[in-house]
Backbone:
């Protein structure tokens, strides 16, 4: 071996985001498969990714998401002192995001910064270094979109050393999404507005490798698994055939869109393939908000769509967002009612944020509604966003606090679970998945006991559930599950998922007060008349003709209405306009 590269995974894995579950750093195992053969590879994470534990290398490669910046810089700074002649490189979602935001200087301490897919740029860089030709490369190395049809399997020789630390397996299956939601930074990545799928044979090959390690829980990583429904069918059918050869009780979690409910054959196939939990961006129960943000595929009867999907036996982990321009005082109550009525048992609603590079970010910037990030890093706090909303701040905080306290109450929790089971048992579409369900409690508990912080979290969960009203609701939920199980075997994961999500949210938001919410209203620092003018201008073409039936028209109309409401309300930042309920 002539050269050595060390992938350093040093993120902030804060308690409220992974809830004690540790997943494989897929970027490192993926890119390690593209390192030239004569390089020695080390993948360092957790305790082994601390400066004192790290051995010398020619290249130290870092990656992360925006919120990881402080921990990445802290580790890199110390390593640089220890190994001054090494090259430090960085890639991952944070580099693209910072570039879009015009803040790439945050990564100035790195020798080279990589934007977007690394499968081709990393080996090019390593070869240039080995050939003493680094000066031919720019400091910021931008990738073309990598065609996943040419993807390699992850580097299992390294993965096998670490797999016991991880919850199940993470398999990347696809990149990209054909939709155009205004707030999303996936579809704006060059070439990413369509599905880019990995060969199904490679997915099965990786499943074989994982299964040989005894792994049966799979996180199928993608932006939208049904971005190309024909490929999704092909993939599901191949897994069904694979399961006939491997009698393992596998379970799969993935990300997809709500239009799945219109594809009954695909829902059946996915269940038979072992799909168990689906993350679906529902975003808002306010149909105007969906129009405003161009989430066209969600402009349907959401309760019906959610019930239909759940009726096949899936658990939905819903994405829900507050703070769209057209949200009114009703949104918090409507969302709570929707969750209960449609029997949704997961979800961690948040406030709209403008990600750099998105049309939403541009619109907020243009209208002076962006809140500048504090200090050097974009660090995520419990409830912290970068938009000045068109609702009074106090009303949003009040509404959110009310929503969380209601949702986490034993009464609402039992009601949502009861409805969930009622829908499942009444459904004629139910298809058993033949697996344990994603979120196996035995595997989760193994990881919980292995770590002191996780053990504390487990104790906190149990003491929350021990409160009399919570204990009663949990016991009732247990009995409801056992009764439903007689008609629909395999609902254990639904019960555990319900308890898991309930306790996650309750612990995350316990002791939450209005002061803990870092929210801003357009009344602070923004001229409402300018905003109204911008909304009106958005309605007019350059030639002066008024736009009809366009997204801009919808957005401008709702923004104008919201501005009017805001102007009519008590506009002081602390104003109590009654928007909360
Ligand atoms: C799976 C996933 C998760 C899983 C994590 C599983 C895991 N393995 O850790 C879960 C559900 C836990 C999760 C949680 C969160 N996630 Co997430 N997640 C994803 C998702 C869907 C896939 C990530 C992935 O593994 N991709 C596959 C790998 C191979 O891709 P990659 O890491 O991007 O690496 C490629 C390139 O970036 C590049 N590259 C990467 N690093 C480097 C380094 C070098 C040196 C080079 C040369 C190249 C390079 O090469 C790689 C191969 O092409 C992405 C969206 C997406 N499609 O990427 C969002 C995404 C990463 N998540 C995101 C967010 C915001 C979160 C949360 C903060 C959400 C929340 N509000 O709680 C939490 C944070 C959790 C935490 N503490 O880390 C954002 C990050 C945005 C940003 N710029 O900061 C993303 C991009 C989604 C989005 N567009 O909004 N997430
Ligand atoms: S459907 Fe999801 S991934 Fe696709 S553009 Fe909308 S938010 Fe992004």
Residues:
């Amino acid at each position: 071996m002539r050269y050595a590269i060390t992938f350093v995974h040093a993120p902030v894995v804060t308690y409220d985001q992974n809830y004690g579950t540790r997943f494989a750093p897929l970027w490192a195992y993926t890119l390690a498969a593209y390192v030239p053969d004569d390089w020695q590879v080390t993948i360092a994470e957790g305790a082994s990714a601390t400066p004192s534990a790290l051995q010398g290398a020619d290249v130290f490669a870092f990656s992360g998401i925006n919120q990881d910046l402080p921990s990445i810089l802290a580790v890199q700074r110390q390593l640089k002192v220890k190994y001054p002649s090494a090259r430090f490189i960085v890639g991952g979602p944070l580099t693209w995001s910072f570039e879009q935001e015009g803040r790439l200087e945050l990564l100035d301490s790195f020798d080279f910064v990589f934007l977007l897919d690394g499968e081709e740029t990393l080996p090019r860089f390593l070869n240039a270094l080995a050939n003493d030709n680094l000066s031919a490369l720019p400091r910021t190395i931008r990738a073309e979109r990598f065609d996943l049809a040419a993807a390699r399997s992850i580097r299992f020789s390294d993965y096998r050393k670490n797999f016991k630390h991880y919850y199940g397996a993470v398999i990347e299956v696809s990149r990209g999404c054909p939709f155009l939601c205004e707030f999303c930074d996936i579809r704006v990545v060059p070439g990413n507005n369509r599905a880019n799928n990995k060969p199904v044979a490679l997915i099965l090959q990786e499943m074989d490798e994982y299964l040989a390690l005894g792994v049966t829980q799979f996180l199928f990583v993608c932006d939208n698994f049904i971005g190309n429904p024909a490929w999704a069918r092909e993939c599901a059918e191949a897994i069904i055939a694979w399961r006939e050869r491997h009698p393992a009780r596998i379970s799969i979690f993935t990300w997809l869109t709500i239009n799945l409910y219109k594809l009954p054959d695909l829902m059946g196939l996915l269940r038979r393939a072992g799909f168990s939990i689906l993350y679906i961006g529902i975003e808002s129960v306010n149909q105007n908000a969906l129009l405003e943000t161009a989430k066209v595929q969600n402009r349907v009867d959401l309760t019906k769509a959610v019930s239909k999907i759940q009726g096949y036996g899936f658990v939905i982990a819903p994405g829900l967002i507050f703070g769209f321009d057209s949200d009114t005082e009703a949104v918090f109550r409507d969302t709570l009612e929707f969750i209960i009525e449609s029997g949704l048992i997961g979800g961690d609603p948040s406030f709209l944020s403008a990600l750099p590079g998105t049309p939403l970010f541009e619109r907020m910037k243009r209208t002076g509604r962006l809140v500048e990030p504090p200090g050097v890093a974009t660090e995520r706090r419990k409830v912290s966003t970068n938009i000045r909303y068109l609702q009074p701040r106090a009303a949003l905080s009040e509404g959110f606090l009310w929503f969380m306290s209601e949702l986490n109450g034993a009464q609402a929790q039992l009601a949502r679970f009861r409805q969930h089971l009622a829908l499942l048992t009444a459904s004629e579409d139910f298809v058993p998945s033949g697996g344990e369900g994603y979120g196996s409690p035995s595997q989760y508990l193994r990881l919980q006991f292995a770590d002191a912080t996780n053990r504390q979290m487990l104790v906190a969960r149990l003491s929350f559930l021990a409160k009399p009203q919570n204990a009663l609701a949990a016991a009732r939920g247990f009995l409801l599950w056992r009764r439903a199980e007689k008609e629909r075997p395999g609902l254990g994961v639904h019960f555990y998922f319900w308890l898991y999500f309930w306790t996650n949210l309750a612990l995350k938001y316990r002791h939450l007060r209005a002061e803990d919410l870092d929210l801003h209203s357009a009344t602070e620092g923004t001229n409402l008349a300018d905003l109204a003018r911008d909304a009106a201008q958005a309605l007019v073409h350059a030639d002066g003709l008024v736009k009809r039936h366009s997204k801009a028209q919808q957005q401008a109309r709702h923004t104008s209405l919201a501005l009017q409401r805001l102007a009519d309300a008590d506009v002081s930042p602390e104003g109590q306009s009654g928007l909360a309920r």
